[in-house]
Write a structure and sequence with these properties.
This protein has two domains: 175 residues, Bordetella uptake gene, domain 1 (D-Maltodextrin-Binding Protein, domain 2), CATH 3.40.190.150; 128 residues, 3-Layer(aba) Sandwich (D-Maltodextrin-Binding Protein, domain 2). The strands form three sheets. The protein has a six-stranded mixed sheet, with helices on both faces. The chain has a three-stranded antiparallel sheet with strand order 8-5-9. By secondary structure, it is an alpha/beta fold. The longest helix is centred in the first third of the chain and has 19 residues.
Length: 339
Amino acid sequence: MLIPVRSVAAAALIVCLGSVAHGQTAEEFYKGRTIQIVGAFETGNDYDIGTRLLARYLPKELPGNPTVVVQSMPAAAGVVAANYMALRAPRDGSTIGGISRNLPSQAMMKLPNIEADPRTFIWLGATSFPGRVCVTGQDAPVKTAADLFKTELLTGGTGAGSSTSIVPTVINRVLGAKFKMVEGYRGAGDILIAIERNEVQGVCMSMGQFRTSQQKFKEGKLRYLLRAEESALPGVDVPSVYDFAKTSEQRQLMRFLFSSTEFGRPYLFPAGVPKDRVDFMRKAIERAAKNPALLAEAEKMNLDMVFRAPEHLEQVVTQLYETSPELVEKAKDISPNLK
């Protein structure tokens, strides 16, 4: 059988081009290239601001000062972005994912529509230690954390995959608190406005979401009620939710469901990116996150940008997947995502 000369030439060209691409060093690949960061967040929240700040400094750590573009993909509380990174994102190192810190535990519990497997992601590092707190407005009937077990608190949320819904729902189901969820808000800013208007009386979310509301705390218009972390949080003198746990199982369930804090604001590649590009980007992100100028900007904005190493994220994922199936099943019954 005769094979057309043009077909042979085309095949040779493809092989040639593939060889050239494969032969590129990481430095050659990134020089002058446009890099996309796909973010699972609403514009203006702490994920978004932290990512855009990092995106401004990342080109300084890459050859040829490439363009870094941030694209928000917040649908379904970040599930859409995670699935995109797992299934459809380019695997050449040109697309970075900034996914929800809640995704790993949600994937373990088989949250509907999650197709991503956190164990297949290539973790690049993260920023922040996002301690979560529950806050009330000045007119809320709940004045102390203990009141939550006797009096209802109307609490704003953005949806089942968000900390604004996960934290109060878990506290309700594990400890018997009386948060009453009002969901459907687009983001943290909308919930804070709703508190001002007395549409809701409180909210639970990361401290970074309150960075522009410090004056309201000073004026008494917002009050810290409870922290969702076992560790102390600077400037927050309120009880930990773990202080109200009566059994070791309650503590284990909350540690699993609240494990997302350990991920900070995580960044990743999809599986299949060449190792030299992974190593190159990991080092670039770490240098950018530790740039003194970036940290000075972050301090002025009251924005936590503490760097968290990729090895730490890998370890947290491994530990999560070592959780007993029995505990995961109990967590599924408690999670707002699956009820």
